[in-house]
Design goal:
By secondary structure, the protein is of the alpha+beta class. About 30% of the residues lie in helices and about 15% in strands. The strands form 6 sheets. A 5-stranded antiparallel sheet has the order 5-6-9-8-17. The protein has a 5-stranded antiparallel sheet with strand order 7-18-19-16-15. The chain has a 5-stranded mixed sheet with strand order 10-11-12-13-14. Strand 8 (about 170) and strand 9 form a beta hairpin. The longest helix is centred in the first third of the chain and has 16 residues, at about 225-240. It is globular, with a radius of gyration of 26 Å.
Length: about 725
């Protein structure tokens, strides 16, 4: 059957009438959606109060697709290839189990798709390929850490695994999780087993499923700033609610051995509640069924005034609502997402739209209802159009809201008022409110290696500290007794870890995705490229006379998928070719406005000539205390492009005024002057250079520059 047509009554409440859904139009050319074709003759169960069919053990599978692409054969499913892999996998078991037991260094494409749901990606290290030998296969594993919370035992386990089974580094992600790179297939099972048996999990860290639930990670005491503890606890509860239930995870990694997990009764009650037709009755996966979700699904929870996590970039954004110091409920938003594709205007970044307010006892049901609406009506024929943001864009917010209310069994209320948002970094020493301290450590693009990794391990092990991971790829050492502070500072300083106050203002808040050489989607550099780009941008800013502490939000990705959320940056770099970036500008420091595309194909070697006229126009045209993103929005892109075209270089007076403010570059820093020639080196020399850079927590450019400058002596 097809879902009934949706209409709005005069009162603004939704109701259903017979027939196919009314035609909808979107920027992607979607005219209508059809879904819920039964499999194997399964009949619809009895109606429920919300006029939505109950699902049965042999589930009716959502196959929402544009009616314009409907098959001539009414019974034929119009699915992408991944949908068939999920359908035939026995709830994510096969052929992954069989492929893990082969002697090949890789797993099949079907198994690799299932591996994502278990928490990782099959990768190829492009820089380790031997001539004629093909791909150099290895695996990435990603953990799930709701709200970025990491028990002491798990941190030490991950640190050990990085050395014994990974590439010697730990990666902190932009979604408050770990990534372990460089795992060989022969080590996969033992790596997963170590994580599972030491208070960790990877289940659902990737794949068409609810991913890690983010939350503002500041470890404030419950009686000091209770809203933070409320957000962090909800992140864990939602993670439990939307976790897969079939047991396939343990069949694959622990050979069927079960691990005791504890959930709140209200979480179990919400998952099992089928009053409004949300569940597949009798299925091992009561919420997901055989097909899980159409695409990745992300949730972020914040507190009033704190937008550290970019909460509106998620499929579901939630903000805790307090009134007179008491927790009363949550504001709920839906339809955010960063991913897009170059030269495909039907794909785009989007911020979540307002749905409304729910009481604190209704939030789990609201989240479940939104996820089920996406499950049943999200597209499954075109994975580039499968995210929730495209469903809401096609339907409109009001229609999506009304359908969600049917699944929830009650209406959203008007949003509660909230104070203005800012983006705190959580850097440095802070009071928790319980007599303990936390210390926010800046980690360059989230990569822990070398002496810095060893020093952090020593401190965390010595004092048995729990850890929090932030959305800016940084690390919070928590529950610190004030008596330990001096020793911690001395240990970290000796390893070269700088306090955030000693780090350039651009570096403090910039983030980047891993990109090359491991990410299969990467077109160009990000993690390895951004530190040098930031230095060059700072040199330009100094040259035009901007203050040495001028700060704006810079983010870089090696492809348009947007893992480092560049479309929210004041200045975003999005890889669009080898050594080339699409430039986005106009995001704001409070992360409440999307940036817009400004220029394509800006070559890495042209950074100075491209940005000098822009920064000079900013310097001479900005208002007092106006940030770069706000200035770009106020003057508009046309005025900025005009300034670029008419720029003739710095006036003599400007050069003289800028000279005293200039900050000399360190001796080892590269200061390019226009496009430089590429220099090839032998493989052996490159490996020595790479090992030196990793051991000294520096970049390849800095290491190479330092080595070459020694030749002058």
């Amino acid at each position: 059957y097809r879902p009934s047509r949706f209409v709005l009554s005069r009162a603004g409440r939704s109701k259903l009438t017979g027939g196919e859904m009314s035609a909808m139009t979107s920027a992607s050319g979607i005219n209508a959606f059809v879904g819920f074709r039964p499999q194997n003759g399964v009949k619809r169960a009895s109606r429920v109060r919300a006029s939505v069919a109950r699902r049965v053990a042999n589930p009716i599978v959502a196959v929402a697709t544009p009616s314009g692409k409907k098959s001539a054969n009414e019974g034929e499913k119009n699915w992408s290839k991944v949908e068939y892999i999920k359908e035939n996998s026995d709830f994510l078991r096969h052929p992954l189990i069989e492929q893990l037991s082969t002697e090949d260094p890789f797993i099949s494409e079907d198994a690799a798709q299932l591996y994502k749901f278990h928490g990782g990606y099959q990768q190829d290290d492009r820089e380790k390929r031997a001539f004629g030998a093909g791909k150099f296969y290895q695996f990435m594993m990603r953990t799930k850490q709701p709200a970025g919370t990491v028990p002491n035992k798990l941190y030490l386990t991950m640190d050990d695994l990085a050395d014994s089974h990974g590439n010697g580094t730990l990666r902190l992600t932009t979604r408050q999780t770990y990534q372990l790179h460089g795992i060989l297939k022969t080590d996969l099972k033992s790596t997963f087993q170590a994580v599972i048996r030491n208070m960790g999990s990877t289940l659902g860290a990737c794949g068409d499923i609810n991913r890690n639930v983010m939350a503002s990670p500041a470890p404030y005491a419950k009686n000091f700033k209770p809203e933070y503890a409320i957000a962090q606890e909800l992140a864990k509860d939602i993670g439990d609610l939307l976790a897969p239930q079939s047991g396939a995870y343990y069949d694959v990694w622990l050979d069927g051995e079960q691990v005791l997990t504890v959930e709140k009764p209200e979480v179990v009650a919400c998952r099992n509640d089928n009053r409004f037709g949300t569940n597949f009755e009798g299925s091992p996966e009561p919420i997901y069924g055989t097909q899980f979700l159409p695409r990745k699904f992300k949730i972020g929870i914040t507190v009033p005034g704190d937008n550290h996590i970019d909460f509106l970039t998620n499929d579901i954004g939630i903000c805790v609502v307090m009134k007179n110091g008491e927790h009363v409920g949550y504001n709920v938003y839906a339809g955010g997402g960063m991913g897009r594709s170059h030269r495909n205007n039907d794909t785009f970044p989007r911020l979540a739209s307002e749905l409304g307010f729910v009481g604190k006892d209704d939030i789990l049901y609201a989240v479940k209802a939104i996820a089920c609406a996406q499950r049943d009506y999200g597209r499954r024929d075109d994975r580039k159009q499968s995210r929730l943001k495209y469903l809401i864009h096609a339907w409109g917010v009001e229609k999506f809201k009304a359908v969600t209310e049917q699944y929830m069994g009650k209406a959203f209320q008007p949003l509660a008022d909230l104070p203005p948002f800012t983006m705190p970094t959580y850097h440095g020493w802070n009071e928790q409110g319980d007599g303990k301290l936390w210390y926010g450590v800046h980690v360059v693009n989230g990569r822990l290696r070398g002496d810095a990794k060893k020093a952090l391990r020593a401190v965390i092990e010595r004092y048995e500290l729990p850890v929090r991971l932030t959305a800016n790829q940084d690390l919070l050492l928590t529950d610190i007794d004030p008596a330990w502070k001096a020793d911690i500072v001395a240990t970290l300083t000796a390893a070269g870890i700088k306090d955030a106050s000693e780090i350039d203002a651009l570096d403090q808040i910039s983030i980047a995705c891993p990109a090359l050489p491991l990410c299969g989607l990467a077109i160009t550099e990000a993690e390895r490229g951004l530190p040098d780009i930031n230095k060059r941008l700072r040199d330009i800013m100094n040259k035009v006379g901007l203050p040495a502490d001028e700060q704006f939000l810079i983010r870089m990705t090696g492809c348009p998928n947007g893992c480092a959320r560049p479309y929210q940056a004041e200045l975003g770099f999005v890889g669009d070719g080898p050594g080339s970036y699409q430039i986005w500008m106009g995001g704001t420091s409070n992360l409440l406005k999307l940036a817009e595309p400004y220029a394509d194909k800006v070559k890495e070697g042209d950074i100075e000539t491209f940005f000098e006229p822009i920064f000079y126009a900013f310097k001479t045209g900005k208002n007092a205390d106006e940030r770069f993103g706000d200035w770009a929005n106020r003057v508009g892109f046309k005025a900025i492009k005009d300034a670029q075209e008419s720029y003739k270089g710095l006036p003599a007076a400007a050069k003289a005024a800028a000279a005293p403010a200039a900050v000399p570059a360190p001796a080892a820093a590269a200061v390019p002057a226009g496009r430089l020639p590429r220099v090839m080196i032998e493989r052996e020399a490159f490996e020595v250079l790479k090992a030196y850079a990793e051991a000294n927590n520096t970049t390849l450019t800095e290491a190479a520059t330092a080595a070459i400058l020694k030749l002058k002596k």
